[in-house]
Specification:
single chain; 153 residues; alpha/beta; Glutaredoxin; five-stranded mixed beta sheet; two-stranded antiparallel sheet
Length: 153
């Protein structure tokens, strides 16, 4: 199933970097920016995470929750979040099940090799739990600022 604007956001519960389960339904009544990223500590993913960190106060001022999801382990997330002082939850989707539900997991190619992995996609979920905006194959550098600008209009 391909998610479209207006569809209900698939609910999930995933462990964070402390292995504490966090469910999407916890944030009902708030707007959620759910961003899928390929791997901790890679150049593009680091730029994207830093962008969200630098815009974090502006997101909080609008009562917007940021959740990052990758297939990395809790230990990897902990190192990444600590190294870059990330103030928002990073969730572990080992195996990519939730990413697949959000059309963000599948066959990728890099340097001639094919593998299964996460695509850099972001979903904005409205306070009533519906998909409000979808950003596919985003450019990491300006992504956080772009979403904030889109949601502020």
């Amino acid at each position: 199933m391909i998610l479209q604007i207006g569809d209900p956001a698939p609910d999930f519960t995933l462990p964070d970097l402390h292995e504490t389960p966090i469910g999407l339904s916890t944030f009902k009544g708030q707007r959620v920016v759910l961003y899928f990223y390929p791997r901790d500590n890679t150049p593009g993913c680091t730029k994207e995470a830093i962008g969200f960190r630098e815009s974090y106060a502006a997101y909080q001022a609008q009562n917007i929750v940021i959740l990052g999801i990758s297939t990395d382990t809790a230990k990897s997330h902990e190192k990444f979040a600590t190294k870059y002082d990330l103030p928002f939850p990073l969730l572990c989707d080992e195996g990519g099940k939730i990413a697949a539900e959000y059309d963000s997991y599948g066959l990728k190619k890099f340097m001639g090799k094919e593998y299964m992995g996460i695509s850099r996609n972001t979903f904005v979920i409205s306070p009533d739990g519906k998909i409000e905006k979808i950003y596919k194959k985003v450019k990491p550098e300006a992504h956080a600022a772009q979403i904030l600008a889109d949601l502020s209009t």
